[in-house]
Amino acid sequence: MSRVTRTIDWDTDAVVIIDQTALPGAFRTLRLDTVDELIDAIRRLAVRGAPALGAAGALGVALAARKHGTASPEALATVRAEADRLARARPTAVNLRHGVERALAFVEHGPDAVLAEALAMLDEDERVNRAASRHAADLLLSRCPDRPLRVLTHCNTGRLATVAWGTALGTIRHLHAEGRIDVVLADETRPLLQGSRLTAWELADAGIPYRVLPDSAAASAMARGMVDCVVVGADRVAANGDTANKIGTYGLAVAAARHDLPFVVVATESTVDRKLPDGSGIVVEERAGEEITHVAGVAVAPEGTPVFNPAFDVTPVELLTAVVTEHGVLAEGRPRKPALGR
Ligand code: MRU
Q: Where, in this chain's numbering, is substrate bound (predicted)?
């Protein structure tokens, strides 16, 4: 493991990120000196995951405030325009806009105040992630007999998706520390492979036993009795608990309900969008067709193939066992079962 401990941080006038497009082949960092560079990194998923995007939003406003200053109405207008472009870089994870707005609230106090607020947000991240994932671990432990669990997860929700620690993967870390993980089944997470590239890298680094499976094998693994519970993160949670997360989450929740398996969403309060009464108002990002028609630059579909490539889906709360944040259970969906069965 590199000595770099934070996925995203500030270092003398620049934002520094772990370049998630290079993993697992190479561990490298990128220095981003401008809001445009940061927006590009967000769109390419060099920095990704809802809490990490929140930090990116706040640090991006700090970049803009330091570059343009905040002393004149013109400078303030420029900073606000850059902040707005940044907030729109990806539409689904509400953390990005939350992070931008939180830092922007300090803009009239000057660039140092903006940066101080952004850094305070980074410091908070690990604490709230640990608290949310502790609640989720306790929920699972309260419902499981005393034996190590086989936990299925989707996408990457670990330190790489946050500033540090993680949400669903943070839950797995807590359980592992208590000797309660048998194996983690990590969906590869098509098409950009956050599961096999990033989650597997984190699990190997942490010494947690895991297997990677194709997304299409998850329901079959449940049917074969290989899964005790499912734990995922979230990109936006509506007030009623409906949850947007990486594409494929909805299908997993349908399958988990069919097999009566607990399905827990772990998120921080900054991922909850209380302005939305339910998930129907969540904007789902659609990404470029090349992510489907090409693998590592090689065409795997006929030229010109039309594509449907949503980056996320929305799972209704009634398919979820619970949505958990740092404050505890935010919403409960499916009725609880007394114990997990093998
Ligand atoms: O497109 P990505 O990789 O940014 O999607 C990330 C996810 O869907 C994660 O599950 C979510 O952000 C939770 S991260 C703690």
A: 48-50, 90, 194, 245-246
Binding site, annotated residues for substrate: 48-50, 90, 194, 245-246
Closest ligand 1 atom, CA of 90?
4
Q: From first to last of its 342 residues, what are the pLDDT tens digits of the chain?
A: 445 679 999 999 999 999 999 999 999 999 999 999 999 999 999 999 999 999 999 999 999 999 999 999 999 999 999 999 999 999 999 999 999 999 999 999 999 999 999 999 999 999 999 999 999 999 999 887 678 999 999 999 999 999 999 999 999 999 999 999 999 999 999 999 999 999 999 999 999 999 999 999 999 999 999 999 999 999 999 999 999 999 999 999 999 999 999 999 999 999 999 999 999 999 999 999 999 999 989 999 999 999 999 999 999 999 999 999 999 999 999 775 544 444
Number of C-beta neighbours around residue 64 at 10 A? 29
Q: Are residues 85 and 141 in the same domain?
A: no
User: Do residue 14 and residue 139 come from a single domain?
Assistant: no
ipTM of the prediction greater than 0.90, yes or no: yes
Cis previous bond, 145, omega within 30: no
Q: What CATH code is carried by the domain that includes residue 93?
A: 1.20.120.420
3-state secondary structure of 4: coil
Which of 9, 187, 235, 313 is the catalytic position?
235
- Return the best residue to mutate from 160, 201, 235 for the ligand 1 pocket (most ligand atoms within 8 A of CB): 235
Indicate whether 109 and 185 sit together in one domain.
no
Give yes or no: 235 in active site. Answer: yes
The annotated binding site is made up of 48-50, 90, 194, 245-246
CA distance 136 to 301: 41
Neighbours of 335 (CB within 10 A): 7
Q: Which is nearest to 153 in space by CA: 318, 272, 264, 319? A: 264
